């Protein structure tokens, strides 16, 4: 039983299955290999620059002040370690599936299922939140246009709300069917349908749309940075960290939520012209570009107004209204609609390709790996993704799910970084253009970093391990306790076995960021994983291709 749970697929067999699975009875042939470096970079930027830069950055700035710029750097470095590990996997295993496929190679089937199930949470729930956020931006944009024309263009409130947050007045004002009020978020549903259709009809059409939206929103963001710089009051940057470093870290989930997009690039491996060379470049380029833009935006935001005023849903529009530039605020609203649309598109592309990979392995029904004969996309999986995101977005209030999405992503990053340590060593061909993760001996560097970390947080560590506050206080330190154990274990392993530095730092930094996410989200995430295990043992375990073999 234990051996079968950790049965692994070899890299050779995964590459063969990917080729065979695209030409079998499911029809459709192989996916279109049309993506190049600029397209992958654009997809990464499309996913990273979205709701984070237009909404969650305000909450992070409120807690961290101007020091939130440091958080963007810390998060970018953390993601950089993970991106390098993703790049190593992408060059060695150039097939769809992202962290799911990588875990199947290194940790085995049960870990692959768990991470695949976690990625469903990351992509689907994250996109529900983005769709609902898009609805708010779009309705505000319509209201602004209508105000300029002297007419009312915005949707009525009962068509942009949900039962969870509706007021008693809205219940009374909404139309009733069979005595029940009709309250739903129609714009959120419509945009999911349109984006799902775009993802369904082809990767070529999707990349063109993504490239256009990315170009437009980067121009708008650069314009905002340049114009905003003229209204910066440097006095607002003092104090730099008004709530200390702990205040900066309070925004970790909101900031990290903005960075998770590069993960989606790896799901398009089979649609890359040269995945071994182009995927790593696309990931790293998009990460660097987005980090620079986020840091500049953070300085502009906290310089134009006091950090204490930034706890708003639309911080960019808010600061330009504060300096009496409503036209720029309107331009930002347009850009926010475009930005969130591009995020929806990238994740609606990524989710079906993970399901396609799981279906090939027998862990999901065969229908999920059907390739459309004309559009060359995983058609059934794309339609199911549309329903999974569109229907909840129509009725639910899930605008605050950044913590839950971030914890799933960080979990995926940890397994990818750990998986690189288990990959068999491969001699570097000097004539090969394939990306190879540079080996840096962590024997002495990892212990030194852990000692420095412990010294910096020497005043905080006793509180982390204290039971003085009782269970209600200490339960929030449980994740940190597991991180401390992991840090000691990997310090020992690094010293004993000379582990590669980059994967170890990626694993530990992601684990630390997870400790800053609330305990309640850990509980919900654990329940989600338990549900996934029930499905695995009830359906997937016996139907796995490795089990059949």
TrEMBL record:
Signal peptide: none annotated. The keyword Transmembrane helix applies. GO terms for molecular function: amino acid transmembrane transporter activity. Its main location: membrane. Gene3D superfamilies: Amino acid/polyamine transporter I. It is a multi-pass membrane protein. Keywords: Membrane, Transmembrane, Transmembrane helix, Transport. Residues 501-543 form the Cationic amino acid transporter C-terminal domain. GO terms for cellular component: membrane. The keyword S-adenosyl-L-methionine does not apply. The chain crosses the membrane at residues 40-58, 70-89, 110-134, 177-200, 212-232, 244-262, 283-308, 328-350, 380-398, 404-423, 435-457, 477-495, 502-519, 525-542. It is found in: Membrane. This is Amino acid permease-associated region. It comes from Chitinophaga pinensis (strain ATCC 43595 / DSM 2588 / LMG 13176 / NBRC 15968 / NCIMB 11800 / UQM 2034).
